[in-house]
Every structure is written in C-alpha cells, then in structure tokens.
Write a structure and sequence with these properties.
With 332 residues, this protein is α/β, with parallel strands linked by helices. The protein has eleven helices and 14 strands. The radius of gyration is 27 Å and the shape is globular. Mean pLDDT is 88; it is low at 1-31 and 244-248.
C-alpha cells in the first residue's frame, strides 16, 4: 500500500507540473496573439479625434509636416506639390495627386484618392470644414499653429505647437521614439541659442523677397518674430504697427541701417521658390545695399541666413537646423 500511495503521489505531481508547464508556454502565445490598437485619440486645433494608426492613404497639406513624414518614409496619396521644397522626395513622386496651391486649391483631388487621414494646417487651415464635408469617412486633423499678432508669448506658442505636432504624428504613424528624438534635438537647439546669446547684442531680422529687404518685426510673423520671445533677443529696431506679412514690413532699408544691429538674421523667401520672377539671392541683395555696409553686422560679417527652404519647409527639423546655425554663429 505504501508503494501504491507513492506511485499515486508521483502521478499527481507529474500531472500538476505538466499543467503548470502548459500554462507557462501558452502565456507568451496569448500576448503575441493580442491585437494591437487600430486607432489612437489625438488632439488637434478643434478638439479630440480618433485616427487610424498607420493609415494606408494619407493626404498631407501642412508644410510643417512634409519633412517629418518623408524622414519616416510615409507614402502620400495627395499633397500640394507646389508647396513642396525641391529637395523633398515627394516633389518628384508622380504618383502623388496634386491638390494645387492654397490660393487656388483642387480639393476634389483629395476626394479622388479616398483618404484615410487628411493632415490640414498652415496655408490650408481655412479649408478644414470644406475638406471634412468632401471626405466624411476620413479622419481630418488640423495641426495649424495659431500665433495671433497680439500674442503675448509667440515663442512659447510656436515651441509647443511644433512639439505637439511632432508627437501627434508619432502617435498616428507608430513613430513615437522617432518623434521623441526630434523633440529632444529641437529642445537642445533652443538651449544652444540661449547659451550662446549674451543678452546685449542687438538683433535685426529681415526677409528678402524679389530683391527687396523687408523688416521682420520682433514677436510677429511666422519665422523670426517668435524667436525674440524664445531667446530674449534685444531688438535693434521696434516699430508701432507691424504685421506677419510674408515679405516683411515696409520699413526703409535706411531705417534698418540706422538701427545699426550687431547681428543680421536673414530669411531668403525666394530661395525655395525657384520660379519666382525677379528672384535675387539674399546674400547679393544684402551685399549690394549701400546703406547696410556701415552697420556692425555687415562690417563684422555677423550675418546668419536661414536654411534655403525655410519659407516652404517650416518643420521642427528646419527650426532645429536654424537654431543650431544661429548658436554656432553667436558662439564664435
């Protein structure tokens, strides 16, 4: 009887161990077989919206997103071809339907590709409602970064906007790590300028367009304006009435010269618009402006040009590149 009891106990023990072993082996399989989420909730300029993760047919209209999407090898079904920098891989892709320019868009091209997601923003933000009606089955998201001309903290709005846009794209296209790295690089570039600027040198920012030099006022506009807020720059010149005009404000070159800036930051609007009639390289315009030659900035060659594609490509990468260039110049 003793042997029988031992035998029964061993049998039971083997059965229990086998059962436990079976459970351990099944758990990984159950995890592997679990379905990944198919949608993600994001926040855009109008609230929260459910967006498919890794959508198949993507329409991108926001020029702040093109470089990021291209870096992640995201295929586009439609885009405003005329707003793409010449260097963008999308610009040479004949399979992408052309939505046209924002001042004369072909919105029907969006409906024609039957998109899963449409990314609206910047120049196309005014067409948000029209696009929603046109493609009711698509997730239409508006990533427009609104910086009112009377914004008290335009720099803070811009930085948050670029950060949020990048992280949102990371969620949609399952590129969260890549998005976080872009934000980290951007933050580092901001710290680089802050560390390099001595808080005393005066800054003058201008936009060169069609051979003319326009004043880019502190705290207004899309590119240089918010930087005065971000970095605490001391402006060489301030005027009462300013605008965010893309060609700069109408302040005379003589007035710009009389402010005698220590640094001159230049945006060449035409550099990314190769077909723009009357386009003259910004460096030539600055060099050939007699009034500017006696300024500290020109005499000491303290001039920093924005990346050539900045006017069209206002991505987080563009700003990081610009800030790194400014930091390097200021640190010399």
């Amino acid at each position: 009887m003793g042997k029988l009891k031992v035998s029964l106990m061993l049998t039971v023990l083997i059965f229990v161990l086998a059962a436990c072993g079976g459970t351990t082996e099944k758990e990984p399989n159950e995890v592997e077989g679990a379905e990944a989420p198919k949608t993600v909730e994001i926040t855009d300029a109008h609230g929260t919206i459910e967006v498919p993760i890794n959508p198949e047919k993507v329409v991108a209209l926001d020029n702040r997103t093109f470089e990021t999407l291209a870096a992640w090898d995201i295929e586009l079904a439609a885009a405003p071809i005329g707003l793409l920098p010449a260097e963008s891989p999308y610009a040479k892709n004949g399979d992408i339907a052309d939505v046209g320019m924002h001042f004369e868009p072909n919105l029907e091209a969006i409906a024609g590709v039957d998109p899963d997601v449409v990314i609206v923003g910047q120049r196309f933000a005014d067409y948000y409602e029209d696009i929603k009606k046109l493609v009711p089955n698509a997730a239409v998201i508006d990533l427009y970064i609104d910086i009112p001309e009377d914004a008290g903290t335009p720099g803070e709005i811009l930085v948050k906007g670029l950060t949020d846009t990048t992280l949102t794209l990371g969620k949609i296209f399952d590129k969260n790590e890549e998005a976080a790295q872009l934000v980290a690089d951007f933050d580092e570039s901001i710290e680089g300028v802050k560390s390099a600027y001595n808080a005393e040198d005066t800054i003058m920012s201008v936009i060169v367009s069609g051979g003319d030099i326009g004043f880019s006022a502190p705290n207004t506009g899309r590119v240089y304006g918010p930087m005065y807020d971000i970095f605490g720059w001391t402006p060489a010149l301030e005027v009462e009435k300013t605008t965010g005009d893309h060609q700069g404000d109408e302040v005379s070159v003589e007035a710009i010269a009389e402010s005698n800036p220590d640094w001159l930051f230049v945006l060449d609007r035409d550099a990314s618009l190769q077909s723009e009639e009357g386009a003259v390289p910004a460096a030539d315009v600055i060099t050939n402006a007699p009034a500017l030659q006696k300024t500290t900035a020109v005499k000491e060659k303290k001039i920093v040009y924005a990346p050539n594609d900045t006017y069209l490509n206002e991505s987080i990468q563009t700003y990081a590149e610009m800030f790194n260039d400014i930091a390097a110049a200021l640190a010399k």
